[in-house]
Amino acid sequence: MNKWGKLSMGLLLAAGLLAGCGSNNDKNNTAASGDAAATNAPAAAKKLIMGTSADFPPYEFHKMVDGQDTIVGFDIEIAKEIAADLGQELEVKDLPFDSLLNELASGRIDMVISGLSPTPERAEAVGLSDIYYKAEQAVVVREADKDKFATMDSLKGAKIGIQTGSIQEDIAKGIEGAQLTSLSKISEIVLQLQSNRVDASIMEGPVAKSFVKNVKGLVITDAKPEVEDDGYVIGVKKGNTELLDQVNKTLGRLNSEGKIDEFVTAASELAESK
Ligand code: ARG
After folding, report:
1. What span, in angstroms and rounded, lies between the C-alpha atoms of 205 and 168?
2. Cβ–ligand 1 contact at 81 (below 6 Å)
3. Ligand 1 atom index nearest CA of 116
4. 116 lines ligand 1 (CB under 6 A)
5. Does the pLDDT at position 90 exceed 50?
6. DSSP code at position 185
7. What does residue 182 show for φ and ψ, rounded to 5 degrees?
């Protein structure tokens, strides 16, 4: 047993002894057994839990790696760097996009890296990092409709599919007469487009590019949705300035080393490979 094991075992024994003065002796004795003490990892080896909605190539998506379903993407590479700088082990949790900020607020995850756009409401609810990457928005339609939906104006009254809780949902709400279908995964929106149930979707440019490359019959139109802040940030629990500072430090380092662009290129290639 290493030093930490011994120490935590000692603490548990002491706790057991103290509790032993009370009534439920048995329970506390089991808690102080060698096994429990051994699995009680020292605080320094804490896990860094990242929440993400892994439906978003090349940011975060599922891929078979060495026969194993793995969550990959450039957001994941950034998360690995943050964890390494903290000396912590990274755990990635795949969650519905619209649940991420609640999970953060309740402390079930430590950070959100999920192609998250900064908005005033989000800045109220959680801590947001510096912007680590920028991209534009795009409109995806069926090939035959490419010219029909070439401007934002032409989307008036159209059936539009968007991800629940995303800024694209807000963009679509601002389009006069548009009929919205909000779904929890981008892949579901793509299916709706293919089966004529929606006519258009708004998504981030890199995600749109990745889907139209892999899905037959879909294209990006010339329509350009406008957003106020076209960058991505990392979210931490409000008040967790320690983690936020480290996140910004790591982002600064990655930027100055040109790593983020490298990660984006590699993730885009991975998203296109079979
Ligand atoms: N950038 C958009 C937003 O913050 C969409 C992000 C969706 N992310 C995802 N991993 N599905 O609302």
Report:
1. 12
2. no
3. 4
4. yes
5. yes
6. -
7. -100, 130
Beta bridge partners of 100: none
Residue 221 in contact with residue 209, Cβ under 8 Å?
A: no
Q: What's the length of the chain?
A: 274
| Average confidence (pLDDT) over 138-161 | 98
CA–CA separation, 40 vs 32, rounded Å?
A: 11
d(CA 118, CA 103): 17
Contact between 234 and 132 under an 8 Å Cβ cutoff? The reply is: yes
- Per the model's pLDDT, the better-predicted residue between 18 and 195 turns out to be 195
Contacts for 238 with CB less than 8 Å, ≥ 6 apart:
105, 125, 126, 127
* Residue carrying structure tokens 């629990």: 237
Are 252 and 258 spatial neighbours (Cβ–Cβ below 8 Å)?
no
The 3-state DSSP class for residue 233 equals strand
Strand (E) or helix (H) holding 134: strand 133-134
Lookup: tokens for 98: 């619209």
CA-closest residue to ligand 1 atom 5: 166
Q: What is the DSSP string of 144-167?
A: GGTTTTSSSGGGTT-EEEEETTSH
Q: Is the CB of 117 under 6 A from ligand 1?
A: yes
pLDDT tens track for 9-44:
444 444 433 333 333 333 333 333 334 444 454 555
Residue 160 has pLDDT above 80, yes or no: yes
68-72 vs 60-65, strand pairing mode: antiparallel
Q: What pLDDT shows up at residue 23?
A: 39
Q: What is the mean pLDDT of residues 56-71?
A: 97
Closest residue by Cα to residue 239 from 131, 126, 130, 129:
126
Residue nearest to atom 7 of ligand 1 (CA): 115
Q: Please state the atom number of ligand 1 nearest to the C-alpha of residue 75.
A: 10
